[in-house]
Design brief:
Glutathione S-transferase Yfyf (Class Pi), Chain A, domain 2; globular; four-stranded mixed sheet; 50% helix; Glutaredoxin; 4 strands; 7 helices; 203 residues
Length: 203
């Protein structure tokens, strides 16, 4: 049985849940209570010495990091549909994995967390990065229906969550028609599972 060490409201955990759902895979959710420090306990550190989530346990094969989990699942279970086999296709997907880990994270995920009171930081600097990456994405998605090779892939799954949640961070999507159409396409995929609700704002 596949296990996913998970937090319901985490965007990165959601990426793994979405990929599992799109692939039609049964799995067990293992909630990790970060507030109670469960990620620092010896049992969890045996699963992931870095003490972070998500972590996938596929019958003893342990994979940490959401992007790595998506690549693993798509490569093993996707039958070539979600992760290309050609060097060109792999390179194109990897580009978007890097954008997700850098520009999307710093420009969309972090401003959202600051806006929701989850963390502190330079909101305006993050927002400026977010606006740049939204323009990049909209340019791509105004010309193409999907990020890579004209079909859904790991690239779309890894980028989608924090783009779709960008308005929660004060980055509205009204002027990005290409992105808004793409979001509807992602949400229309068979096996799509809804985004988690935002956490309550801290006082």
């Amino acid at each position: 049985m596949i296990k996913l060490y998970d937090i319901e409201r985490s965007g990165n955990c959601y990426k793994a849940r979405l990929m599992l759902s799109l692939l039609g895979l049964n799995y067990e959710k293992v909630p990790v209570d970060l507030g109670a420090g469960e990620q620092k306990q010896p049992d969890f550190l045996e699963v992931n010495p870095l003490g972070s989530i998500p972590v996938l346990d596929d019958n003893g094969v342990l994979i940490r990091d959401s992007a790595a989990i998506l690549v693993y699942l798509a490569s093993k279970y996707g039958q070539g549909k979600w992760y290309p086999k050609s060097p060109k296709g792999m390179g194109k997907v990897q580009q978007w994995l890097a954008v997700s880990s850098n520009e999307v994270f710093h420009g969309l995920a972090i401003p959202r967390a600051i806006k929701l009171g989850i963390r502190q930081g330079d909101y305006e600097a993050g927002k400026a990065t977010g606006e740049k990456v939204l323009k990049l994405l909209d340019q791509r998605l105004s010309a193409e229906e999907w990020l890579v090779a004209g079909k859904p892939s790991v690239a779309d799954v890894v980028v989608y969550p924090y783009v779709a949640m960008a308005p929660q961070g004060g980055l509205p999507l009204d002027s990005y028609l290409g992105i808004r159409k793409w979001i509807r396409r992602v949400e229309g995929l068979e096996g799509f599972t809804a985004l988690p609700p935002p956490p309550p704002k801290k006082a």
